[in-house]
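Bumping my old thread because nobody answered last time. Still need a sequence for this structure:
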């Protein structure tokens, strides 16, 4: 299919952008990233909120501000990202962690 056919079939072509391209559009913005955590006998997520500084081919760099005013840098593999929320978000409600039931 040509690009015009894809656009008419799927609607806006922005819907078909890969995750890396969508993340690149969020560079410089405040985001919350839920990192999937799957290990033996454990399933859950880690929630990180900060400024999306860089997006590579297989990672993102997130600058997280600490309570004492210090800044920490987190490098997150793209394959570990479960959800990305752009903008400011209130604290998670009880029962949100872990999302898969956790047992």
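Sorry it took so long. Here it is:
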């Amino acid at each position: 299919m040509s690009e015009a056919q894809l656009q008419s079939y799927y609607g806006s072509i922005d819907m078909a952008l890969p995750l890396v391209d969508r993340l690149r559009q969020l560079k410089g913005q405040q985001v919350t990233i839920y990192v999937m955590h799957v290990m033996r006998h454990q399933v859950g997520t880690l929630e990180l909120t900060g400024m999306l500084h860089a997006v590579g081919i297989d990672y993102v760099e997130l600058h997280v501000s600490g309570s004492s005013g210090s800044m920490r840098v987190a490098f997150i593999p793209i394959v570990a990202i479960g959800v990305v929320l752009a903008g400011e978000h209130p604290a998670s409600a009880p029962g949100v962690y872990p999302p898969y039931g956790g047992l």
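The longest strand covers residues 42-55. Let me know if any region looks off to you.
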